[in-house]
Design a protein that fits this description.
This protein is mainly alpha-helical. It contains 8 helices and 4 strands. The strands form 2 sheets. The protein has a two-stranded antiparallel ribbon. A two-stranded antiparallel sheet has the order 3-4. Strand 1 and strand 2 form a beta hairpin. The longest helix is centred in the N-terminal third of the chain and has 29 residues. The radius of gyration is 18 Å and the shape is globular. It starts with a helix and ends with a strand.
Length: 164
């Protein structure tokens, strides 16, 4: 790969394709954490009856583990499993060395649209899920016009995706 190509900004289509690959890894992580939690609670993680109740700590734990997958992957070479086949790398804007605070800020800002799921009791799950999709569309929209193809979470964290 030529040096010029190695430093090219990552186009949105490539970024989203890598994200689809990462979705498969995230589903696997969520399933393993769910299984471990079910085994640890003797199958009482989710209580059913008149009202379904999930242990208060389960969703924060899932968020922590999934967030850790992204942060650790980015800090260990700038790539998640989904980014590797597409030769996409996360770097800090400027010098390229990614700080853990940038990785953490990036994952938190990228996940913010998930808070729209809290609207589900009032709007219904379907509308809340579409609100999340719309939120992420807004998050990624700047990558269509930004010269460095940065999404909102890249701008907030001082990062960018590069090909190479």
């Amino acid at each position: 790969m030529s040096p010029a190509h190695a430093s090219a900004p990552c186009p949105l289509w490539r970024r989203l394709t890598a994200l689809v690959y990462d979705l498969l890894a995230v589903v696997a992580i969520v399933m393993v954490v769910g299984l471990v939690c079910q085994l640890a609670t003797g199958g009482r993680l989710i209580q059913t009856g008149a009202h379904t109740a999930i242990a208060w700590w389960y969703q924060p734990l899932q968020a922590l583990v999934v967030g850790a997958y992204f942060v650790v992957s980015w800090l260990r070479g700038g790539q998640t499993l989904g980014m590797r086949p597409w030769h996409v790398r996360l770097v800090a804007a400027g010098d390229g060395r990614l700080a853990w605070t940038q990785a953490l800020r990036r994952v938190v800002v990228a996940a913010l649209p998930l808070l729209l799921l809290a609207l589900a009791p009032w709007l219904g799950l379907r509308i809340a899920a579409w609100a999340v999709v719309a939120g992420w569309a807004l998050w990624f929209a700047p990558a269509l016009v930004d010269p460095r193809r940065r999404a909102l979470h890249d701008m907030a964290a001082g990062t960018e995706l590069r090909i190479g």
